[in-house]
Amino acid sequence: MEAVVEEKKGSDELLQLVTFRLGDEEFGVNILNVEEINRMVEITRVPNAPHYVEGVINLRGRVIPVINLRKRFGLVDTEIGRDTRIMVMDIKGRTIGMIVDAVSEVLRISSDTVVPAPAITGGINSKYIKGIGKLDDRLIILLDLERLFKDSDIDEQLGFNE
User: 70-109, pLDDT tens digit by residue?
Assistant: First the structure.
């Protein structure tokens, strides 16, 4: 869990996460990867992009690719609702937008409550999951953003090679 913000408190390490929902599932990402959270804006389609790439947005002069996480994970796509958000993420210096159903909260969980991901996690490939965090009666799926976006080769497919 090296890439997750950690605080020492006794023997426990606290992980600071931004949580969001896709359907009934709750996910968490390292707060340090989150640049900002925006309401849905107009997305410009990009020809020949993978099915999960919705297109690009202009965010204060920066062109940012936007990924539909539902499609990326092979989940059923739904209509954009009033709670739908674009989470603008920084992943190894690359800015990418992720469409999520709703952003829940910022929270801290003890690293002691994180267990390895099972082989099957709601249809999502377990290689994209760092672990499952347990918080009271909730289970939070902790995403491995570097692996998720490395595998997709978004820069190459959208012509953003650096």
Answer: 998 888 888 999 999 999 999 988 899 999 999 999 999 9
Question: 59 near 108, Cβ under 8 Å?
Answer: no
Give the span between the Cα atoms of 68 and 150, in whole angstroms: 16
Burial status of residue 162 (CB atoms within 10 A of its CB: 0-12, 13-18, 19 or more): exposed
Q: What is the CATH number of the domain that holds 94?
A: 2.40.50.180
Where would I find the beta strands (DSSP E) of 5-152?
Answer: 5-9, 12-22, 25-30, 34-39, 53-59, 62-68, 85-91, 94-100, 102-110, 114-115, 120-121, 124-125, 129-135, 138-143
pTM above 0.85, yes or no: no
Quote the CA–CA distance of 140 and 142 in Å, as a whole number.
Answer: 6
In total, how many domains does the chain have?
1
Q: Supply the range of the domain harboring residue 27.
A: 5-158
